[in-house]
Amino acid sequence: MNQEAILTADEHNDHPTGLKRWLFTTNHKEIGTLYLVFSLTMFLVGGSFAMIIRAELFMPGLQLVNPEVFNQLTTMHGLVMIFGAVMPSFVGLANWMIPLMIGAPDMALPRLNNFSFWILPFAFLLLFSTAFLPSGLPSSGWTMYPPLSLQNGTNVAFAIFSVHLMGLSSIIGAINILATILNMRAPGMSLLRMPMFVWGWLITGFLLIGVLPVLAGAVTMLLTDRFFGTSFFSATGGGDPVLYQHIFWFFGHPEVYIMILPAFGIVSEVVPTFSRKPLFGYVSMVLSIASIGFLSFIVWAHHMFAVGLPLGASLFFMYATMVIAVPTGIKVFNWITTMWRGSMTFETPMLFALAFIVLFTIGGFSGLMLGIVPADFQYHDTYFVVAHFHYVLVTGSVFAVFAGAYYWLPKWTGHMYNERLGKIHFWWSTISVNVLFFPQHYLGLAGMPRRIPDYAIQFAEFNMVSSIGGFAFGLAQLLFVFIVWQTVRGGQKATGQVWEGARGLEWIVPSPAPFHTFETPPPIDDSVTVHAARDS
Amino acid sequence: MTALQCTLRATAEERPHKLPNPSEDKNRRGAVRTALILAAVAFVVYIGFMALTLIGAGN
């Protein structure tokens, strides 16, 4: 073969189209889009599980599903929402925005980026395939606590391998994001000039690499207990089920921050833009994120006070949990101070960011209540806990993703979304999500246990209200899908700047962002991106 | 043009036919080194936690 033939045969000269374009893409924007579409799909799938759960709980008694199916639904809802919806949505946003924000031409390892995404659909196919096994879908909760999970059938093996794949995808994604942030910043983009979203992801990346292997180790040992006769967590063989809880929550608590630190980053981008003021206390925001990341490693046992920890351990984990309120409080203070005397406008991204600040704080306060050892003995495994973590993850993480999606949608598509519909989506979601989750605090305080398909008659009214809120919230998300579809299809052309008060490198490129950006590093000066200098 | 930029242009017509040597691309080299270190950390955590549990559980 002569030289010319070799060059002609080079498949890289082709422009793949159709399915091949998406299968083989190495472009950060396309991979970001893949992640976001995948997470939206999983959000709707996990949401449909939630709709069935709320329909079953609409009134006392068993109406729609039997208890085993109910357990399968709660398990799958948790796994799908955490590993399929929230985490990939932030990875999608990172893929799209981090290279644009730091002036890099792409992610540092583009082919690995493609690989880390395409693992995910197969992981979830594997998980869903358990529906066709005699033992059905996994039903021991997303935490997969032994001994219950060891009593399941062969679906445990599928679920564990699936969790391994999801973890692998996240670790590879985190490695890529860290390698990008640490090596690909444009000259002049020092660490303390980076946008807060990038900072949020820098810390999140380290958390992912620190704790996901721990989850992988825990479920590997679960697998050997179930199928290879070991007794890590089986009391009958001399093992200890509580040991699993320690290892799981060593992963599980930082996991909560993995799902909230990028959200903090998004809110820290949106609030200054629509307040037309620089972010207040940039350096303290960075230090707060880093402190929260560190503290997340030393509070895991507050999830398991009820197992009977030694008094000293209980006190340590209680006080360590309380300390997290300090950096979180600093962040809330800084967001409010950023808005103080700003020229605020209330476009949809800002509305979602404001709702985040108020409602996430409610979730934070109920978290403090749960962190108090004697109080936790009352609240543990009740609907109070369900209310708490849904305020953190829905009105926290998911609302921040909505804020980010509306904020950057014009940059991605080149079109402005329909502002009126966006506001309807916001108000509909915000009212319904509170109708959904706020009554659950009272249910928990009154003693209703979580993960049950039936309940005493005294809980009927609040459950009915909660279910009505749930159906309304689910319906509101179909409107979001319509808004995104409408924006992708067309609409008013967006400018490169998009938002009057927006600062940062992503706003100096045209909308939609071209396929290749920053092949030549952009000049970095204070007028474009320097949050620290803007502070002074 | 750096090796990374060539990789990014893997689907573009203007991709140059001769790739520069990746070892001459500082960003690329640094990124690969960072990725390898992080992957090693993840692997050590994975094995380390299982080993600690093994010792702790007395298996």
What does this structure look like?
The complex is a heterodimer of chains A (536) and B (59). With 536 residues, chain A is mainly α. In chain A, 68% of the residues lie in helices and 0% in strands. Chain A has 19 helices and no strands. The N and C termini of chain A lie far apart (64 Å). With 59 residues, chain B is mostly helical. Chain B is 64% helix and 0% strand. Chain B has two helices and no strands. The A-B interface holds A 7, 10, 12-16, 21, 24-27, 105-106, 108-112, 171, 174-176, 178-180, 182-184, 209-210, 212-214, 216-218, 220-221, 230-232, 238-240, 243, 247, 515-516, 519 and B 4-5, 7-13, 15, 17, 27-28, 30-32, 34-35, 38-39, 41-43, 45-47, 49-50, 53-54, 56-59.
Which structural class matches the secondary elements of chain B?
Answer: mainly alpha
Helix count, DSSP H or I runs of 4 or more residues of chain A: 19
The largest β sheet of chain B comes out as: none
Name the helicity range of chain B: 55-70%
* Number of beta-strand segments of chain B: 0
- What is the succession of H and E elements of chain A? HHHHHHHHHHHHHHHHHHH
* End-to-end separation of chain A: 64 Å
Distance from first to last alpha carbon of chain B: 55 Å
Q: Beta fraction of the residues of chain A?
A: under 5%
**Coarse shape of chain A:** globular
